[in-house]
Amino acid sequence: LENKENIVIIGCGASGGTAAQFARKTNRKSNIIILEKGKYPQYSKCGIPYVISGIIPEKNDLIEFSEEWFKKANIQLSLKTIVEKIDTKKQLIIAKKEEKRIEIKYDKLIFATGAKPFVPPIQNLKEDNKIIKGVYSLRTINDLEKILSTIKKSKKAVVIGAGFIGLETAENLYKKNIETVVIEALDHIMPNSFDIDMSKVLKEKIPKDLEILTNHLATRINKNHDKIKSIIAKNKKTNEETEIHTDFIVLATGVKPDVKLAKEAGCEIGDAGGIKVNNKSETNIKNIYAAGDCTEYYDYITAKPKTIGLGSTAVRQAIAAGINSSGGTYILPKGFLSTYTSEFFNVEIAGVGPSQKDLNEFDIVNAKYNGLSHPHYFPGGKPITIKILVDKPTGMIAGAQAIGDKAAQRINTIACAILGEMDIETFRKLETAYAPPVSPTLEAETIVCDIISKKLKKI
Ligand SMILES: Cc1cc2nc3c(=O)[nH]c(=O)nc-3n(C[C@H](O)[C@H](O)[C@H](O)COP(=O)(O)OP(=O)(O)OC[C@H]3O[C@@H](n4cnc5c(N)ncnc54)[C@H](O)[C@@H]3O)c2cc1C
User: Fold this and answer.
1) Cα(403) to centroid of ligand 1, in Å?
2) Which residues neighbour 150 within 8 Å (Cβ) at sequence distance 6 or greater?
């Protein structure tokens, strides 16, 4: 090991694993070592909700890169290894592997420690400072295992939080014939991504017997002996309390970057609570990089720091960390667009950029259009609703949200326009491919821009 450079990565999630792969591609000679405290090699967190319903049959199907894969790639993966301390002066890592203390010298270090679920303050949620049995987060295979075994003896569930993970979890519980209620504190579903009008369109597509209580705070859990009996949801407007009987509860209330180790090592933590990194994924400490959910980076539109929590951006930052730590060069854009997608009850949704509430310092004009995937005379057209937000002074697209046919593809096109700094006058003239069985002559996303262009010219 002696003469080669040691690149050490803490964490083998999407960022850790990706950073290792790109470090290896960039430098064939270095020692690349991943230290992971869990027992699984790199697996997909994004697939976890679909194991609940059985769409993904087995939890082990989530594993993307096995221990053998890492071995073949000449990357040393050490599982069940928890990093406890970093001495940045000696460039030394102190870790524990099954009670054995290990010390590893690093030349380059990459933090890929991810994030931890946020636990909201709910009465009786904890006993002796531990979350009670029957209340679960959904972040790891370990959490999944607990939910899978609970489901076998349950009929009812409550999911707290109506963001992506909450809704994906609720849908998969519903598909497993578990009577499910979602409690959301804010006034609409997908509150951090979608505007209220788009959320309403989406809510219409969700079956009515999957109850969603928006504007409700989960306040108290009631137990019957050792089992959960119910949860109280308080209407934030009227203060009226509703008791919801349930066998178990899933917390989908967001995450917080896991920055403990990095902070102790002296890495700067930013205003959004993540490790501060630049466009090369470098931290403020020499030879130390960070990537993924443990970091914060800038929003492309607002230029404000934010934690992102998307697998796609985690992988981008990890590519930068892997390449730059191994002698190559990879520069990230000045901020992240935060392009996202999902599917609820066969309806695709997607978006890019901030929602309207996060653009309140901008002068925004917007339009929404309901179209069809095919010309009206061609059978089988599927609905598409698309909303675009444009910065009035510059005519640049600031964000977009879509529900329905090929939502992600449409949003990806808009993401391309934003990254290419294309203004709306150019984008609205985009020539899109047309044939009746495939698409209409004018696509919904360019029609919305025509509407906005008209609005802008009247102003
Ligand atoms: C249910 C669910 C669904 C999702 N769906 C999507 C989706 O559809 N699209 C999307 O873009 N994103 C999605 N995400 C988000 C995406 O999964 C995350 O952004 C991504 O996993 C972040 O990867 P990461 O490597 O930064 O962090 P993690 O995957 O959290 O990995 C961090 C790793 O570090 C290890 N670690 C931490 N501390 C130490 C230590 N001291 N010593 C050793 N190891 C340590 C942890 O054990 C962990 O394995 C979803 C997330 C969840 C939970």
Assistant:
1) 26
2) 134, 136, 247, 248
